[in-house]
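Case study B.
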Amino acid sequence: MNDPIITARGLSKTFTAARRTVTAVTGLDLDVAEGELVAFLGPNGAGKSTSIRMLTTLLPATSGTARVAGHDVARDRAGVRGAIGYVGQGNSAGHNQRVRDELLSQGAFYGMTRRDSARRADELLESLNLAPLARRGVMTLSGGQKRRLDVALGLVHSPRVLFLDEPSTGLDPQSRAHLWQHILQLRRTAGTTVFLTTHYLEEADQFAERVMVMDHGRVIADDTASRLKSRLAGDTVTVGFAGPEQARAGEPVVARLAGREPDRVDAVTLRVTADKADVLVTDLVRALDEAGAPAARIALREPTLDDVFLSLTGRSLRDTGDAPAPDHEPSETR
Amino acid sequence: MTTASAAVRAVPAAAERPLLDTWNVFVREMRPTLRDPFSLIFNLLQPLVFLGLFGPLLIGSFKAPVGETLTWFVPGILVMTVLFGSGSTGANLLMEMQTGSHERTLVAPIARSALLVGRALKEIAPTIAQAVLIVAVTLPFGFRASPFGLLAGLVLLALFGVGLGSLSYALALASRAKDWMFWAVQQSLIFPLMILSGMLLPLDDAPAWMRAVASVNPISHIVSAERALLTADLLSATVLKGFTAAFLLAAIGLAVGIGAIRRH
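Model:
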């Protein structure tokens, strides 16, 4: 196998704000192979952005080492900068600039000739559906258009690695789908390594080949979404009964077959997680009938990455996702 | 897309080249102005308004020939335009920091000094046009400047602008969490610095303490040097002092500015 394009060993970051030390990232180890599409998934304040900012030279690490595209992030910052594309959380284009002008400036920043910059700018405008907006002022663009321009700016110099920090936050579902279509197409055609952070579960589940779950500054799981789900979270079976008595009678039956105590959702509903739920369900129907507590309805749900997060941390990502970040200081003192 | 990518990738990874990077940053900053030259007109008119409204008052109270008064006053106006222009380097940056466009330039392989100098030069560029305009307007009223002196004077102004612009940039970075701080510091510094430089009113009859403060104000040395240069007094001690002050200011500004970029 080729050398990994991104490696980190023991990468850590602590911030000191108002005489309080906050640890944002603790001992990050990772290897990403060329061409992979990796997602950092975790709630706000988990350390995703801080990690990406260390890998992109925006933030010096407190300890540990990292190499990106063959360059050390501490000793050869210019080398790293030249090899990567970065799309931050904010919009990259100056609001008083014109769309195509920003692409030309970006090309110049990366040492491209005027001709190469112009050709590449037109190519990207075309492929990201921005061509009709080339001469428009950035401040007149919609949120989705600005985000596509951000991606275009990150790609002008055809980087080997593209970092995207929360690329789809704040976009409506249609713009989000549109953006993803472009990112995936880029992977197919140019084989670019894509490393992104997100707190959208569906996004990580649907598109990333590899998901690193982050919480409180640590990577707590690292695998494909499907393996994480089958390993860390079973299917969920919800059984509804005709009345509370049947539910009480059914409870020991469900517990015996599932191998664990079910949760009571309400007086007539039980819920339990199981590994082979599709098999369990048929047994359950039969056993409940025999016990005189027939199921009125049964629902089967496959696990999501939220279930994975719940089983890893005891918290739901949906609850934490939009809550104010517990350690907000880092983003202000960066 | 694939073939173009391969061609671009063949170019060796960009290394930092401060001069070229400065030019590229400057060009990016200038683009919106060049796209909309109308904004320049207001820029150009501002010093003329000052000249037109303040000049007659000075001429009235100086009781010296008009040409002589203008020769004293015009260099001060030029320094003032740079003072206010390069002071806004940081103000423009505040806007870019709120979006991600400043961050984007930080991730690019650009020399950090180029980010400061390129932006400061953009604020100074209109000064050249302003200087030409002011000279053209005041010529009929008896203002005289030596062309060489004027050229050297512009170099001095550019140096001054780089130093002040870098400090303004650093101030913007330092006040990124609360942008009112930028304006509070900027406003409380800029007016004392202006008045205590003898830019608009002579300090000859000022109380001793004011003259003492002015003597350590680098801007007052720059104003004096600018006056000496425009009257073709090219190789005097005043000019040397002014350039020294501007050099020191630029060196300190760049050191502080680059330090601020690394820290934030």
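Chain B touches chain A at residues 1-2, 4-5, 7-9, 11, 13-17, 21, 24-25, 27-28, 31-32, 35, 95-96, 98-101, 103-110, 177, 264 (CB under 8 Å). The remaining cases will be described in the next quarterly update.
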